[in-house]
Amino acid sequence: MTIRNKAAIVGIGQTEFSKNSGRSTRHMALEAVTEALNDAGLKATDIDGFVKMGANNDVFEIDLLRSLGLDNLRFFAEIPHGGGAACGTIACAVAAVTSGMADVVVTFRALNERSERRFGESTVGGGVGGWMQYNMPHGLVTPAQWIAIYAQRYLHEYGHTTEEFGRVSVLTRKHAATNPHAMMYERPVTLEEHQGSRWISEPLRLLDCCLDTDGACATVVVSAEKVKTLTGTPAYIAAAAQGTGTQSEMMTSYQRTNIARLEEAEATGKELYRTAELTPKDIDVAEIYDHFTPMVLMALEAYDFAKPGGAPKLFQSGVLELDGEMPLNTHGGHLGEGYLHGYGHIVEGVKQIRGTAVNQANNVKTCLVTSGTGVPTSGIILSQEAY
Amino acid sequence: MQELPRPVPLGDRDTAPFWQAQAEHRLSFQRCSSCNEVRYPVGPMCPECRSFDFEWVESSGRGTIYSFTVVHHQTHPAFAVPYTVALVEMEEGPRVIAELKSNEAASPEIGTAVKVEWVDHPKQPLPVFVPDQEHS
């Protein structure tokens, strides 16, 4: 038994993405949820479940419950490990609606990460416990620095240069440049600009790092049975999975045999393809989590679109362009559209399946959406048909 | 110049002996009493044989650079840029994060032999890595 096509995303909502929303994360979450409900043709009182992401979250399902005036929630959950959780919230919602534990599950992410608490900031002073005790006292204090350790080893293992990182940046910003919703709308970058941008933490430059963003996104997940009672266009969930790989830590899984590979994503990919009964060749468009450019290369390899070390070739062959065989990060990703910890990727995946994206790819039947790497991760495969 | 406070490791019931050893300038790892597997980071169970029994063993302090980053964008007042943090594969197997201090102007290189030295920060002495000329 699998969950293949037994549930669907039937509603999506998102606020504008900006440097300063001017309102609370709770306010934005409610806007996104309202839009997603309208999109699905459902009422607030139809909601009986919420799933949210953990890290850096200050909006709880009961905050939404109170504002929406709901009587009760019979299913609620939180998925841990930062950006690795995004598609995991969908996977959890699928588990709820296919098991009968909930009927209409709303998932969401709301952040004022540019105007309030910035994710890339370190916490000053004080004590650090858990996994951080081994890294932060030595000056390894931010995501860019943790990821730089993986990135340097990736360059070393395969003899690549930072130009390979730059091509990720250029392609993603090209797609953002034609997306009016993107923070970097009409602002493409060149490889020269990438190479000339300042070092953040070698081998990462400014243009290898995602944006900090204010905004919110939400989805509505229901069972395939429930889809039949609704009028909107569903994006069926052909597969949804989480993965850890071996010796997993939050951002610093440095004890693994080879840290130039993303074990958590390899494991997630295998489970996704097995559940969906698809192969990488069957994926029409891919929305790959892009917190830092090297992780996009490593993820493309982990999800088996290239051999280890082989992803840079995909950027040189045109495969990932809008008119290529498998367009990548069509919305402009975290590098160009905005950093909603993977939620913009999910919303874009649904639009691609519906055929309503601003940068619509051709003949999209399937879409792979992946979540944060370097942490326990997750992914989904969306499908136009419930095959 | 007075040193600004850097993050201080909060030892817990598993890791307190690890940090106490560092306070005495010893880098130590757990070694399983049942199967002799050396493990790090600190944990209560051997992932090879699932034994809870272990002893602390002192590292030789020698290893090679497995990866590194040179930090240029300052995000914490205690760490003036630029500085280099290395992930070093120790002779005993575990990989350890610490600052890399070198008088040489050249960039660090993966594979370079390094050894541990100790810096007495106010609240917690910490290891740093320096080039190991004898073993390079």
Write the layout of secondary structure elements.
The complex is a heterodimer of chains A (387) and B (136).
Chain A: E1 7-14, H1 25-40, E2 49-53, H2 61-68, E3 75-79, H3 86-99, E4 104-112, E5 127-128, H4 143-158, H5 162-177, H6 191-196, E6 199-201, E7 204-205, E8 214-223, H7 224-227, E9 235-243, H8 263-276, E10 285-287, H9 293-302, H10 311-317, H11 333-337, H12 343-354, E11 366-370, E12 377-383
Parallel strand pairs in A: 2-3, 2-4, 10-11
Antiparallel strand pairs in A: 1-8, 1-9, 4-8, 6-7, 9-12, 11-12
Helix pairs in contact in A: 5-9
Chain B: E1 8-9, H1 16-23, E2 28-32, E3 38-39, E4 54-58, E5 62-71, E6 83-90, E7 95-100, E8 113-119, E9 126-131
Parallel strand pairs in B: 7-9
Antiparallel strand pairs in B: 2-3, 2-4, 5-6, 5-8, 6-7, 8-9
* Proportion of residues in β-strands of chain A: 15-25%
Beta-strand content of chain B: 35-45%
- CATH topology of the largest domain in chain B, by name, is OB fold (Dihydrolipoamide Acetyltransferase, E2P)
Uncertain ranges of chain A: none
CATH superfamily of chain A: Thiolase/Chalcone synthase
Based on Cα principal axes, name the global outline of chain A: globular
> Cα distance, first to last residue of chain A?
15 Å
**What share of the residues of chain A lie within helices?**
25-40%
The strand line-up of the biggest sheet of chain A is: 3-2-4-8-1-9-12-11-10
Q: Spatial order of the strands in the main sheet of chain B?
A: 5-6-7-9-8
Q: Roughly how many Å is the radius of gyration of chain B?
A: 16 Å
Give a quick precis of the structure.
Chain A is α/β, with parallel strands linked by helices and 387 residues long. Chain A has helices spanning 25-40, 61-68, 86-99, 143-158, 162-177, 191-196, 224-227, 263-276, 293-302, 311-317, 333-337, 343-354, and strands at residues 7-14, 49-53, 75-79, 104-112, 127-128, 199-201, 204-205, 214-223, 235-243, 285-287, 366-370, 377-383.
